[in-house]
Specification:
The structure is a homodimer. The first copy, chain A, contains 15 helices and twelve strands. In chain A, strand 6, helix 10 and strand 7 form a beta-alpha-beta unit. In chain A, helix 2 crosses helix 3, helix 6 packs across helix 14 and helix 7 runs parallel beside helix 8. Chain A folds into three domains: about 35 residues, no CATH class; about 130 residues, Rossmann fold, CATH 3.40.50; about 160 residues, 3-Layer(aba) Sandwich (Rossmann fold). In chain A, strands 2-1-3-4-5-11 form a six-stranded parallel sheet, sandwiched between helices. The longest helix of chain A is centred in the C-terminal third of the chain and has 19 residues. Chain A is of the alpha/beta class. Chain A is elongated. Strand 2 of chain A pairs antiparallel with strand 2 of chain B. The structure holds a DNA duplex.
DNA sequence: CAATGCACCGAAACCGGTTTCGGCAACAAA
DNA sequence: TTTGTTGCCGAAACCGGTTTCGGTGCATTG
């Protein structure tokens, strides 16, 4: 019958090399070698003569041979993949970082012939479930744990399961030597905050406030400490009235900043632990009639893109997320391949990106308080 | 010796069930069944008695049995993973979308017990290489192709390799029936643009400009056409002077919008194909002294977070990226499992999010031109 | 010349699942 | 009773690689 020709009758010899994958068997047959020899040649075993190895490698390239990763995995136990689980329900997602971060991590992984799988979870508990499922099914050989908390259940889980993992950020604030055994990569937020204070002090500010982030995250404590260190280094008194915490969103930043501005003796400069909070404050303060960078100086942290598009542009300490991803992936893979986790710890500095949001104080705290009073009255007048 | 007790000596019987994985063998032995029976019971074969199946499933749950995905893959040929390759060097990355998009895609994949692996490439060519490597090694069973171009090499490659794939966006603009065989999911940017024009017309605008995106992307054409349709539906003439293209960044948006404003008879409203371009224009126009939403109305498209933090907030057509990711993953998995690609095509509308960036025109085009002249002179005055 | 060592390679086991195939019991039909 | 069926399960092959182990052939040594 010649009716059923919807499926082509072509593909005789060519098909095998075009669409059909070459497998180890076929490569070996093509070379007149056994598949064990070919496998060992490709995997760098020493009991293969240099001539044979070269011949095998050449043929493999020519035929476009690529081992199936899961076929190797079944014997080696490694899938050559790392994974990261994001908590998609966090109010302040690491939104803008993600693209860069992934670019860095993927690039590093790819260059070592590894891949990156990602997953999302809806809660802290769900994260644990996803992590263990991923590892149980061996979708990944190790994990990057972003946004480490002071007390982080993920670390306990993975450590008890003896699964390789690396932290983006440190953990165990206040518990000395807590993170000695785990590997991590982090940006030195503490020294950035310290430098922010010193910079403001050089501008002439002496009353400098701080708006921190959620204390459940480890970085929140480090940055607050950095601010305190900076104050100390500048020889300024540490006034607890000037320290606020728990600002995660723009709205938080606005309200916490507003609280600082409402002090009897308000700060002429505020350091924010995150750009988001800083941006929220700036918008709100401008609405009230304050001039950012003149009436009140602001410095943020993170380096989100919005900083440069805000007006005035926000002075901030920018984090190189791409590099972070790249280093984290690299270090994690090293760990999976046997490196001692305690040797895989890196601390990198953020870089200052100046905008117009900070500068010499135009007003003293007292004058600022007066302006605040004036603006409030004016607004009240508007309403009536 | 009692010295080397840093490593615990516990883990006798418990170890096997806690940290050690149970494998099929062990589960079968535990049940007194053969592993083939257990496997078929878990995979829904019909030649297993209901009683046995229930017993197996219960035991599997109790022992926490989870098959190694790569061990299954070696026989089934499927790794239960989908992948997406991002081009990390694009000037306008789909930054803010990514987090939501991934959340949607991962959630959909997870709920079907699939995973999502992502990778980045540095160029169009590199993307092709990464795609084929990923598939050669069977890191994924299919791919999501984001940001489809009019003529997209990725589609050709995957189609020729007979690899399942789904497009985020359509392709082949101008070549009818071009995308009939491929599955895709897209947001109806054309109807959004159309509605944007109609909305502005209802406000009273009759001279409405358009700033489009890079014509290499398929959506750029669709959105432009949508704008044209809107003009036609509103009974307005289609003036090619009012149409600009190729704005990918904020800066592009600013300069293209500026060009429209420089017309003898400038538009009193501009529809932008992307929020980024719209935001760039708004900032620039404000710098010049124009009042957004009064002097000139602006509508964007995408729904990036910055829209609501801009002042005035940008009226835009918001894309539900999470849903997009979710649908794309779902459809792709269906396709991998045998569904006909041509039946897997979905078009969803964007939703209007109003801000203060548009409204009734305060000035006629002539008056706007005068204001422009005035502002220019004033600025010139400033400089001297 | 026999014995030893070494470089190099092939045969076969192995990894942890899936799938094919055949067999045994029980039951129905002849 | 014999002869199919049918329901249910086990043995073994299989997937595509990796790794172990043993065995050549050749050079070296005593």
């Amino acid at each position: 019958m010649t009716t059923n020709l919807s499926y082509p009758l072509i593909n005789h010899s060519s098909q095998m090399t075009v669409s059909g994958r070459v497998k180890l068997d076929e490569l070996a047959a093509h070379l007149g070698l056994s598949k064990s020899t070919v496998s060992r040649a490709l995997n760098g075993y020493s009991d293969i003569s240099p001539v044979t190895r070269a011949r095998v490698e050449k043929a493999a390239r020519a035929l476009g041979y690529r081992p199936l990763s899961h076929a190797q995995a079944i014997r080696t136990g490694q899938v050559r993949a790392i994974a990261m689980v994001l908590n998609s329900e966090e109010p302040d997602q690491h939104n803008p970082f993600l693209q860069d971060f992934l670019a860095g991590a993927c690039q590093a992984a790819s260059s070592l012939d590894w891949t990156m799988t990602i997953s999302t979870a809806t809660s802290e508990k769900d994260t644990l479930k996803v992590l263990s499922r991923l590892y149980q099914e061996r979708k990944a050989d190790g994990f990057i744990l972003p946004r480490t908390a002071v007390k982080d259940a993920r670390i306990g889980l993975l450590r008890s399961l003896d699964v390789p993992h690396i932290l983006y950020g440190r953990t165990g604030y206040g518990q000395p030597n807590k993170w000695d055994e785990t590997s991590w990569f982090d940006i030195a937020g503490e020294s950035a905050m310290r430098n922010a204070v010193l910079r403001l002090n050089e501008f002439g500010h002496s009353r400098i406030g701080f708006v921190g982030s959620d204390p459940k995250f480890n970085y929140a404590h480090l940055r607050r400490d950095g601010y305190a260190e900076g104050m100390q280094a500048a020889g300024l008194p540490l006034d607890t009235d000037l320290i606020r915490e728990g600002a995660r969103t723009r709205e938080d930043g606005a309200s916490q900043g507003r609280a600082l501005m409402a002090l009897e003796c308000p700060p002429t400069a505020i350091v924010f632990a995150t750009d988001l909070a800083a941006l929220g404050f700036c918008a709100d303060a401008q609405d009230q009639g304050f001039e950012i960078g003149r009436d009140i100086s602001v410095i943020g942290y993170d380096g989100v893109p919005e900083c440069q598009y805000a007006r005035p542009a926000l002075t901030t300490f920018s984090v190189d997320s791409r590099k972070a991803g790249q280093r984290l992936a690299t270090l994690l893979i090293q760990q999976i391949q046997g490196a001692d986790p305690s040797t895989l710890q890196e601390l990198v500095d953020a870089t200052l990106v100046t905008g117009g949001s900070d500068g010499p104080p135009r007003l003293t705290p007292e004058e600022l308080a007066q302006k605040r009073q004036y603006l409030t009255n004016q607004k009240r007048g508007d309403l009536t």
